[in-house]
Design brief:
single chain, alpha/beta, two-stranded antiparallel ribbon, MobA-like_NTP_Trfase, MobA-like NTP transferase domain-containing protein, Nucleotide-diphossugar_trans
């Protein structure tokens, strides 16, 4: 079986919505069910048997072993580049550190399903699957002609394609807080189709290719575990209950 390298993005400082729950400096360190968030992700990657090596973009103080450490930067895309600098050309799996429900089976299925002919493969999960498995989770969904989906927290990229599109991706990220500029980037036609419920997966893929100069695939994926992350207090409460025994220390007293 083919193995792919993987990059785990664990460089998010704990200064957002989870800061009230824990005194840890990094979100990846926060304990869920008695373990650091990032441990669940790295274990799922390793136990899948489909991933090697594992590069972690995060502080070396994280409770991990047998991984390659990459320098942390302030911007997410800079952290992606930092991780890519540690691997060779070709497909590489990227995962965020806040998906503790990730399983070896989901990782293996995604590696098998991701078509190497695409520069980027991004899993999307149908709303009904997520709500059936995690009825209490609150996710952001997008209604398309093909269904109503949320995005996953793992994706497959070709290193050379990401580096080639670096300028365009950086511009989009810079515009993300300006609806007017972002709308200009995406295009009026695409926005109108989305607003009236006529946008399809194929439309979105074509627009990504035009914007970034890369060939992307939105892959309908049947593993809701990849679509549920922990980025707000209610997520933590659900994850701690499902992954632990309900006996974890209250998040408000979690200490490094």
């Amino acid at each position: 079986m083919n193995q792919r390298p993987a990059i785990v993005l664990a460089g998010q400082r704990n200064d957002g919505r989870l800061a009230s729950l824990s005194a840890f400096q990094w979100e990846a360190e926060i304990r869920v069910g008695g373990r650091a968030l990032v441990e669940y992700v790295v274990d799922a990657l390793r136990q899948s048997g489909r991933i090697a090596p594992i590069v972690v973009v995060g502080p070396s103080s994280l409770p991990l072993h047998d991984v390659i450490w990459a320098p942390v930067h302030d911007e997410m895309f800079a952290n992606v580049i930092s991780g890519l600098d540690c691997v060779g050309d070709g497909p590489v799996l990227i995962a965020t550190a806040d998906v503790p429900f990730l399983t070896p089976e989901a990782v293996s299925a995604f590696v098998d399903a991701a078509d190497d002919h695409y520069d980027v493969v991004y899993p999307i999960i149908e709303k009904s699957l997520v709500e059936a498995r995690f009825p209490q989770t609150q996710r952001t969904y997008v209604r398309l002609v093909d269904g109503t989906f949320t995005g996953g927290n793992i994706f497959m990229v070709r290193k050379e394609a990401v580096l080639r599109s670096r300028t365009a991706v950086t511009e989009l990220l810079e515009h993300r807080k300006s609806p007017r500029r972002l709308a200009g980037d995406i295009g009026l036609g695409i926005l109108v189709k989305w607003l009236i419920g006529r946008l399809g997966i194929e439309d979105a893929q074509k627009r990504v290719a035009q914007l970034l100069g890369i060939k992307g695939q939105a892959l309908i994926f049947d593993y809701p575990e990849v679509g549920v992350d922990v980025d707000k207090p209610q997520d933590w409460e659900m994850a701690d209950r499902l992954l632990g025994n309900g006996q974890s220390a209250p998040a408000s007293v979690q200490q490094p």
